[in-house]
């Protein structure tokens, strides 16, 4: 019987290490090629890892919550002749050949390519249109091209080996609260753990720990004065990126406060417009459009400093990053070619970006290649700030809260909707005049949206 050890791969983002967040199989399970075996947390992404081997799980070599370097064996899969033959037949019937990175039925390590490189891991890299994702073990086989049902009940392997049945949202809640599902008493049908079960357990006298974003929970035992939390995952990557940016690019921050009443009224009208009935319209949509338009007059805003070649690279496209606070920490996915989108297309893209970020499923490709970032601190009731530039970019715009305030209109004081924008930029690339011009243009468009016709 052959035993194959699957080593933690680089899933396509220059990965050096990752945390094994959740095992979705246990020792003794029979798996097929491309079955999802675990979830790993990389640089701000939660990634499902498929198996390149078929057979029986003989050993889970890394514990949940453990951070391991790329190339570390994480699971051992044994495959006897009978098992291999069964897997081959099953793969031929259920899975299109285009969905596999290896030939159907191939057991063992993928063969190297002609140039000596290792083929892309199963489930990652370019995919042929029309392929079908293989269902997780234990789930009903869906119709062709249908995704797994969102209400799928999964059973993560816990530290004591028990099978804890819980739906993905409940499993995520347990992870955020630091609750071991194996210790929770289920009350749902068939022994399924519900959200109420997790919350009830979490409200009891449990140990303090780390939540999904790397923050310390408040449930410290009586008398405990400190809690030490390992710096890893999202917190570690964010810290490294911010330190690199802050001490590499000389930051300058400028502010502008203006009357945004006309933009607020436009948002209200768009929300009632039938053409925008299927998307969410918010002030952020208008800010995003204003950034794309104002950038045409100040292209240096949408550029990067190339230290190696000693060149300033002007980008003739806008991959618009939106800083999103999620349960796992701060992520900055970006909308590709946002400048080429209509207002409706941009509204839809913003909605999709936000939904994916909140679900914790933002992928590395979604965060790569950004050219300019918006951070909306106003949603927290904050008026302004001095944001740190996202690495690889030259500027970032912070949008403050929109508040009703007294404002001079003509010769009278009237209540108006007022907000503040703060622009941080790399002074190696952008001079004060250029930064000021861009910021003034964004404010002018938002103060009087009709001016957008002039850009």
Could you give the topology of this structure?
Layout lengths: L1 E6 L9 E7 L6 E2 L4 E6 L4 E5 L4 E6 L6 E3 L3 E7 L1 H14 L70 E2 L1 H10 L14 E2 L1 H8 L30 H14 L4 E9 L1 H12 L10 H12 L8 E4 L4 E4 L5 E7 L2 E3 L2 E2 L7 H17 L4 H4 L4 E4 L19 E5 L3 E7 L2 E15 L5 H16 L8
Parallel strand pairs: 9-10, 14-17, 17-18
Antiparallel strand pairs: 1-8, 2-4, 2-7, 3-6, 4-5, 6-8, 11-20, 12-13, 14-15, 14-16, 18-20, 19-20
Question: How is this structure best described in words?
Answer:
- By secondary structure, this protein is an alpha+beta fold.
- It folds into three domains: 2-149, OB fold (Dihydrolipoamide Acetyltransferase, E2P) (Beta Barrel), CATH 2.40.50; 153-212, Irregular (Dihydrolipoamide Transferase), CATH 4.10.320; 235-454, Chloramphenicol Acetyltransferase.
- The chain is 24% helix and 23% strand.
- It has helices at residues 81-94, 168-177, 195-202, 233-246, 261-272, 283-294, 343-359, 364-367, 432-447; strands at residues 2-7, 17-23, 30-31, 36-41, 46-50, 55-60, 67-69, 73-79, 165-166, 192-193, 251-259, 303-306, 311-314, 320-326, 329-331, 334-335, 372-375, 395-399, 403-409, 412-426.
- Helix 6 crosses helix 7 and helix 6 packs across helix 9 (432-447).
- The chain is globular, with a radius of gyration of 25 Å.
- It starts with a strand and ends in an 8-residue tail after the last helix.
- Mean pLDDT is 79; it is low at 81-154, 158-162 and 205-218.
């Amino acid at each position: 019987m052959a035993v194959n050890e699957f080593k933690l791969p680089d899933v396509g983002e220059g990965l050096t290490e990752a945390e094994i967040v959740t095992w979705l199989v246990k020792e003794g399970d029979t798996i097929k090629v491309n079955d999802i075996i675990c979830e790993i947390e990389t640089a701000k992404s939660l990634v499902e890892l498929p198996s390149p081997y078929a057979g029986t799980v003989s050993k889970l070599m890394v514990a949940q919550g453990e951070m391991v370097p790329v190339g570390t064996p994480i699971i051992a899969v044994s495959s006897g002749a009978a098992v291999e033959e069964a897997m081959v037949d099953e793969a031929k019937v259920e899975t299109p050949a285009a969905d596999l990175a290896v030939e159907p039925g191939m057991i063992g390590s993928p063969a190297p390519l002609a140039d000596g490189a290792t083929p892309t891991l199963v489930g990652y890299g370019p995919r042929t249109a029309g392929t079908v994702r293989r269902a997780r073990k234990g789930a009903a086989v869906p119709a062709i091209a249908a995704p797994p049902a969102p209400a799928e009940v999964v059973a993560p392997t816990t530290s004591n080996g028990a099978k804890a049945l819980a739906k993905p949202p409940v499993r995520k809640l347990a992870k955020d609260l630091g609750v071991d599902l194996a210790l929770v008493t289920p009350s749902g049908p068939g022994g399924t753990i519900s959200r109420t079960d997790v919350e009830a357990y979490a409200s009891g006298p449990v140990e303090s720990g780390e939540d999904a974003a790397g923050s310390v929970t408040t449930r410290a035992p009586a008398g405990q004065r400190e809690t030490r939390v390992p710096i890893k995952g999202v917190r570690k990557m964010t810290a490294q990126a911010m330190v690199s940016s802050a001490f590499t690019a000389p930051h300058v921050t400028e502010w502008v406060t203006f009357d945004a009443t006309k933009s607020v009224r436009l948002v209200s009208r768009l929300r009632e417009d039938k053409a925008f009935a299927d998307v969410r319209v918010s002030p952020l949509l208008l800010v995003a459009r204003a950034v794309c338009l104002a950038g045409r007059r100040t292209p240096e805003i949408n550029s990067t400093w190339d230290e190696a070649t000693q060149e300033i690279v002007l980008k003739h496209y806008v991959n618009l990053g939106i800083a999103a606070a999620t349960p796992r920490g701060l992520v900055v996915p970006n909308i590709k070619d946002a400048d080429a989108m209509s207002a409706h297309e941009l509204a839809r893209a913003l909605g999709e970006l936000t939904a994916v970020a909140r679900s914790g499923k933002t992928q590395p490709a979604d965060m790569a290649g950004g050219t300019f970032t918006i951070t909306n601190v106003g949603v927290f009731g904050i008026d302004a700030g001095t944001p740190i530039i996202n690495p690889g970019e030259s500027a970032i715009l912070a949008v403050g809260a929109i508040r009703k305030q007294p404002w001079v209109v003509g010769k009278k004081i009237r209540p108006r909707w007022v907000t503040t924008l703060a622009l941080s930029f790399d002074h190696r690339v952008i001079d004060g005049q250029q930064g000021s011009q861009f910021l003034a243009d964004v404010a002018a468009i938002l103060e009087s949206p009709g001016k957008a016709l002039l850009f």
